[in-house]
Amino acid sequence: MATQALVARILAAGDGPSAIDALHDDATIEAAATPLSVADAARLVGLSAHTLRYYEQEGLVRPARNGAGHREYAASDLRRLVFLTRMRLSGMTMTDLKRYIALVEQGPRTVPERRRIMLEQRDRIARQIRELGLALETTEHKIRVYDGHPEG
């Protein structure tokens, strides 16, 4: 599967196991997949080219450069961008992301600390979900009140 098709599959899958499987399934990527320009990569992952350059400046992604010096995003870069996007959406700070990516780049010996970071992030996400659930209940209550059914 070419890089574009992989990213389309990841984005179409939305949430759930299929998106995660697509994100991590290296077997679905052809060795000859054509790298993407910054504009194409940005469009596929739903970020601006400016954001991709910012992530590069911050050391979160390191796309290769072609002979002309233009960025070329490989499938592994796109998977990293999807991960970064999901973590930012969940509220992970840039400081935590930079620490996590630095650990990834140090190799397998850092797995215990990376796991700890992900456990902490999971706890933050679970708390956010509970808080959003309460906000949704409050919103639904107000809608019932405005519909003339304060107790229903």
Automatic annotation (TrEMBL):
SUPFAM superfamilies documented for this protein: Putative DNA-binding domain
Database matches in SMART domains: HTH_MERR
UniProt keyword terms in alphabetical order: DNA-binding
The HTH merR-type domain, residue ranges: 35-103
Domain of life: Bacteria
InterPro entries recorded: DNA-bd_dom_put_sf, MerR-type_HTH_dom, MerR_fam
Protein name, as recorded: HTH merR-type domain-containing protein
Organism: Asanoa siamensis
